[in-house]
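Take a look at the protein record below and flag anything odd:
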Amino acid sequence: MKLLVCVSQTPDTTTKVKFSADNTAFDTNGVQYIMNPYDEWYALVRALELKEQLGGSVTLFHVGPKENETVIRKGLAIGADSAVRVDAVASSATFVAKQVAAYAKAENFDVVFMGKETIDYNGSEVPALTAELLDMPFISYANNLKMEGNSATLSREIEGGKETMEVDTPFVVSCAKDMAEQRIPNMRGIMMAKRKPINVIAAVAAEDLATIVRYDYPPEKTGVKLIDPENMDELVNLLHNEAKVI
């Protein structure tokens, strides 16, 4: 099978979020970056499992500048065969989706894997946009995938239960927790990754339909209020007027 796995670079979960002086850009000074966990732990590993089961190849796809190649190399060390980097800044979900769609369409992949979301924006936009641009079936938030020939059976959690569906290749899937188990690159994989190719390509033209006006911090959490158990009137008042319980 010919499998494409899209990977993003995100700030480490321990990063302190800061913005520029005018709140129009994320301040990257001192930020430690990692591969987006949903892309690494679930999308990439499940693609590798399918390759091991059915044969074929796994290609990583990333939109970003050269300094992001450390993240790409980690994916190669885990087991991907090759990688493609679009030499551009990932300015928006629309921009990224158009890059993925253009490459995937030209190369005729059987399955396009993505994490369900990135841990910085949590938008879950790119997979759906990509599927629309490719005119392919899209399964979101999948936590199980089994292949038999060109047919896949996928399942995902829904409110009150589980949904199971079947789809033929090609298709796009966004992967959630339980799709696969995290793999740690070993020394052999790390050494081999240094020799695996990263094909750098130019971005296709893609107009951004939305622009960032400003970033704002969420309201600060207030401290815990302790109410005397004998003072039910005050508790009811706080629940109605501060906790917004109706």
